[in-house]
Specification:
By secondary structure, the chain is an alpha+beta fold. The protein has one domain: q2cbj1_9rhob like domain (Jelly Rolls, Sandwich). The protein contains 5 helices and 16 strands. The chain has helices spanning 5-14, 25-48, 73-79, 82-91, 119-125; strands spanning 16-19, 53-54, 57-58, 62-66, 96-106, 114-117, 135-140, 151-154, 168-170, 175-177, 186-187, 195-199, 203-206, 215-223, 242-245, 248-249. The strands form 4 sheets. Strands 1, 4, 5, 7, 12, 14, 15 and 16 form an 8-stranded antiparallel β-sheet that branches. The chain is globular and about 50 Å long. The protein starts with a helix and ends with a strand. It binds 2-oxoglutaric acid.
């Protein structure tokens, strides 16, 4: 994996950077395998309980699978590595905590798109207090294209703001919406193993999967500070495990 200055420059200027071949074949296979086992477990549980929907999971259509690294030593070992630390250092600095983590899986379905949003917009909706931007690492586990619902980004230079923006809940879209402008954004069509590292203040969206293959991504976010809920009595909003301190991996 190589991160050069133009990539980190793009992060500070435009809010994101793309790192090809971030995962090697072994890491890619590991993540795909863990993801597929989790999908089978969720489907088996839903079948047992005779339900088609469980929170935001919809049987055969979309799955959000959080906090997996905590249960898989091999995944934890893959996350707590120099390359994730390097990405954090180049983007949010020498201190980083895990903010959240999940697999996002979309099967063929027209309702698997996400409207324009900043990840921090969802954090605020979820009860977080205003915070410094954190880093989202979105990793393609399958080749990503328009057809299978890849993400699009709206670079900072074309965005109405580089700061936290007001999001509005849209009942029809069943989503938070942070941008209604005309810019279609830049489609991110990348091969499996690519990392798209972006600021939680970067507007992005994603399409629906119109293919017959699952579209899997792995998402892990790192925050430079532990920020609280806006209701302070609820404590820290982030997942919160220390990742790097003074530039060094904490464990
Ligand atoms: O389609 C995806 O994987 C991206 C979803 C997304 O935008 C998000 O989880 O913030």
């Amino acid at each position: 994996m190589k991160i050069d200055e133009s990539q980190s420059g793009n992060f500070s200027k435009e809010g994101y950077m793309i790192i090809p071949d971030f995962l090697d074949q072994k890491e890619l296979s590991l993540l795909r395998k863990i993801c597929d086992v989790k999908i089978s477990d969720i489907e088996a549980e839903m079948t047992k309980n005779q339900i088609k929907e469980d929170r935001i999971n919809v049987y055969g259509k979309k799955y959000f699978i959080p906090n997996v690294w905590k249960k898989h030593a091999s995944l934890e070992a893959m996350v707590f590595t120099k390359k994730f630390a390097d990405v954090c250092k180049m983007t949010i600095g020498d201190t980083a905590f895990i903010h959240n983590e999940q697999f996002v899986v979309k099967m063929r379905d027209k309702d698997t798109s996400f409207a324009w949003h900043q990840d921090s917009g969802y954090s605020i909706q979820g009860g977080a207090s205003p915070h410094k931007p954190y880093l989202t690492c979105w990793i393609a586990l399958d080749d990503m294209s328009y057809s299978n619902g890849t993400i699009s980004v709206l670079p900072f230079s074309r965005s109405p703001s580089r700061d936290l923006m007001t999001h509005v809940w849209d009942d029809k879209l069943n989503a938070m919406v942070g941008y209604n402008g005309k810019d279609p954004g830049d489609l991110v069509e990348v091969p499996a193993g690519t990392l798209v590292a972006f600021s939680s203040f970067l507007l992005h969206k994603s399409g629906s999967n119109q293919t017959d293959n699952p579209r899997r991504s792995y998402f892990i976010a790192f925050t430079p500070e532990l920020f609280p809920h806006s209701d302070k009595s609820k404590g820290i909003y982030s997942s919160g495990e220390p990742f790097i301190g003074s530039g060094e991996i904490v464990r």
